[in-house]
Amino acid sequence: MKVMIRRTDAGLSAYVPKKDLEEPIIKLEKEELWGGTVTLRNGWRLLLPDLPRDTRLPITVEARKVSEED
Q: Distance between CA atoms of 67 and 12, rounded to whole angstroms?
């Protein structure tokens, strides 16, 4: 799914246009953000693509929602 990642005054945020959903990112698997999972405030876990650490925000990426069983 397409997800826009941006930095706000409160921290990182993820916006999913297809669901019209914007949630703060509350947990990062990897400090550099890319190539790991992030957890949104609503409980969704998204696997982000492996991008360079210095990738500029905001950016729209193809992310995969990770199910609770994974």
A: 21
How many CB atoms sit inside 10 A of residue 8's CB?
Answer: 12
Q: Residue 33 is encoded by which pair of tokens?
A: 């953000």
pLDDT digit string (tens) for the chain, length 70 residues: 999 999 999 999 999 999 999 999 999 999 999 999 999 999 999 999 999 999 999 999 999 999 866 4
Class of the domain covering 2-66: mainly beta
Q: Are residues 39 and 20 in contact, defined by beta-carbon separation less than 8 angstroms? A: no
User: Domain boundaries in the chain?
Assistant: 2-66
